[in-house]
Amino acid sequence: AQKKGVDSDSLDSDDDDVINLQDQLSSGSSSTVEFDVEARDDLEQEGQEQRDRTRRILTLGLTDSTDSDDDDDENEGRLMQEDSQVEAQAEQDTDRILGKPNPSPTFNLRNYIQIHSDVNSKRRKLQNSFYASIPVVQRLNVNYKLEGHEGCVNSLHFNSSGSKIASGSDDLMIIIWDWANNKKITTFPTGHRENVFQSKFLPGDLLITSCSRDGQVRLAELCPAGSLRETRKLAQHRQAVHKLALVENNYVVLSAGEDAQILMVDTREQKTDKLLLLKNDKDKKIPIYSIHTNPANQNQFCTAGREPYIRVFDRRNLSTSDPQEVVKFCPVSLRNNTNSQRAYVTCAVFSYDGSEVLGSYSDEDIYLFNMGDTQNTEHSKQYSGHKNSATVKGVNFFGPHSEYVVSGSDCGNVFFWSKDTESIVNISKGDENGVVNVLEPHPTMPILATSGLDEEVKIWFPNLPINDDENYDETKRNYMKKTIKKNLMDRLQPTDDADSIYGHLLYQLWTNLRRVDQRRTGAGGEGGAAGGARGGRDADRGGDSSDQDDDDDDPRPQCAQS
After folding, report:
1. pLDDT: is 46 or 301 the higher one?
2. Of 262, 370, 382, whose CA–CA distance to 318 is shortest?
3. Which of these, 425, 421, 397, lies nearest to 413 by C-alpha position?
4. Which pLDDT score, from 0 to 100, does residue 509 have?
5. What is the pLDDT of residue 10?
6. Does the pLDDT at position 78 exceed 60?
7. CA-to-CA distance for 313 and 293, rounded, in angstroms?
């Protein structure tokens, strides 16, 4: 995980201001989640002092003693000038972001009364109008946490009815939740040997497919009572697999890996096909981080990986020796930019009707592209203010008609933008350890599930109490301004210094290593790493599409998501 910070004394005061403003906001809220930021502040302060000492030592060692004072003054003046320029640029960009117009209201009392009078024919319209209303999104906050994992939670997926959530974690387990009652339905080992990155329900909710850093795509079969019947391997990539997509009535699984391969597995026939080997114009393989199918056309899917392009393919056109994408999108500013190598796409998703594609770029903004205009591949909207640097972060639409854009950030907040106006509608704290990676909207209700470096799943409700304090709106806006400004300054003035998030990743790695070792040396290999083998029924059946051998004794440990 790559994390960059700011070597500036002015940022320490900004951090304090952000924390103080956050405390003022939380004092007027009934939210049950508390966030301890003192430890992070101490680490950041120690890191700043250490950088200052190192800079002084290097300066003293490289300059003559007679000129050291003059050189120190000159270096200090130059650094102060650079910091002032960065701060001025961040201040200007922050004002531009917050100055964007708010979206028009979609729900009011008159509409409610009119629709309610004919509820039988317009029930869905009433529900969608409420779901997409601005006050609902503005009042979204963490209501409670689902606790049960022993590692970072990397995947969340609602079933088709929205009554259950499947969560996958670094602890190699999948938990099925009755999220409305804050209760576990079942917990089972996946059979993976390393971090579980994705878990998805198949029709009927008794089959759950998953993928992992170990390159395996696996299928777990549950009994009607909820217990695990067996798990088996469907396919094998040579490198990590971050995302899965479901097509053909959700019985066919598409998997995309860092080995640049896209595999297609029909779970009904246990058949695996190599669908695509993704390469760029220089015939170089492209590691893939994300794959998503078009809801309006199940033959189309988009990929995102270590390149600045989002590529859309049609499965019907991939049988040729030289498969070509339907269209590829990239902001013009990133195509020939010297920094485009680091501005790769961490996640890309289609809108509810497949008319738009949304992509989140590392160390950059989020961009929206129009599928209806394949000749003009420039972005139509741009969403700024967050920071996507430390992990492979997801992005998603929110609302019944994709009215909003939602993303996590390295600052630990979740950002909500209006899709049409690009304005920030809400910023709310979402992770104690500083990074939100996964965002899963409920299929029919204004409810959101998120996860990150914490070991819990957080459930968001639009029930933030209305605050009558006349200064609340100003305090909230100041908090948003400080948060955005700090994120922008972190991006404008990157460093290679280790910080609190990097320290947390190392701690998480150490913790996971201990847990894996305990499971593997425990009672007969019954832990998560044992893969849920039950009387020899966990056979590695199915299509092994790689030449790589699947050695169950491979001692490779899992580590924090990067």
Report:
1. 301
2. 262
3. 425
4. 61
5. 46
6. yes
7. 10
Dist. CA 451–CA 434, nearest whole Å: 11
- Count Cα atoms within 13 angstroms, Cβ side, for 524: 5
Rounded Cα–Cα distance for residues 135 and 139 (Å): 6
Enumerate residues 6+ apart whose C-beta is below 8 A from 496.
Answer: 4
Mean predicted confidence (pLDDT) in 368-395: 87
Give the model's pLDDT for residue 125: 72
Contact 106, 426 (CB under 8 A): no
Beta pairing, strands 207-212 & 310-314? unpaired
* CB of 396 closer than 8 Å to CB of 441: yes
Collapsing DSSP states into helix, strand and coil, what is residue 193? coil
Task: Look at residues 242, 245, 200 and name the one whose alpha carbon lies nearest to residue 220.
Answer: 200
Q: What is the pLDDT of residues 100-117, one digit of tens each?
A: 877 765 544 445 445 444
Name the token pair of 183. Answer: 């209760």
DSSP secondary-structure letter at 240? -
Q: Is there a contact between 95 and 488 (Cβ–Cβ < 8 Å)?
A: no
Q: Which residues of 546-558 are buried (b: 16+ CB within 10 A; e: fewer)?
A: beeeeeeeeeebb
Map residue 93 onto helix, strand or coil: helix
Give 442-448's long-range contacts (Cβ < 8 A, gap of 24+). 442/158, 442/162, 443/158, 443/160, 443/161, 443/162, 444/127, 444/131, 444/162, 444/400, 445/131, 445/162, 446/130, 446/131, 446/136, 446/137, 446/140, 448/140, 448/398, 448/406, 448/414
Q: Contact, 93 vs 384, CB < 8 A?
A: yes
The model carries a pTM of 0.74
Whether 173 has a pLDDT exceeding 70, the answer reads: yes
Q: Which helix (H) or strand (E) holds 361?
A: strand 356-361
Classify residue 351 as exposed, middle or buried by CB count within 10 Å of its CB (0-12, 13-18, 19+): buried
Q: Has residue 14 got a pLDDT over 60?
A: no
3-state helix, strand, coil in the chain (%, to 5): 30, 30, 40
Query: 243 and 221 in contact (C-beta within 8 Å)?
Result: no
DSSP-derived 3-state class of residue 408: strand
Indicate the range of 129-133, 191-195, 397-401 predicted with least confidence.
Answer: 129-133
The torsion angle over the Cα atoms of residues 302, 307, 309 and 315, rounded to 10 degrees, is -30
CB 26 within 8 A of CB 18: no
- Choose from 40-54, 217-231, 497-511, 525-539 the range with maximum mean pLDDT: 217-231
pLDDT band per the 50, 70, 90 thresholds, residue 374: confident
| Tokens, residue 164 | 């259950």
Q: Say if residues 63 and 74 touch (Cβ distance below 8 Å).
A: no
d(CA 287, CA 266): 23
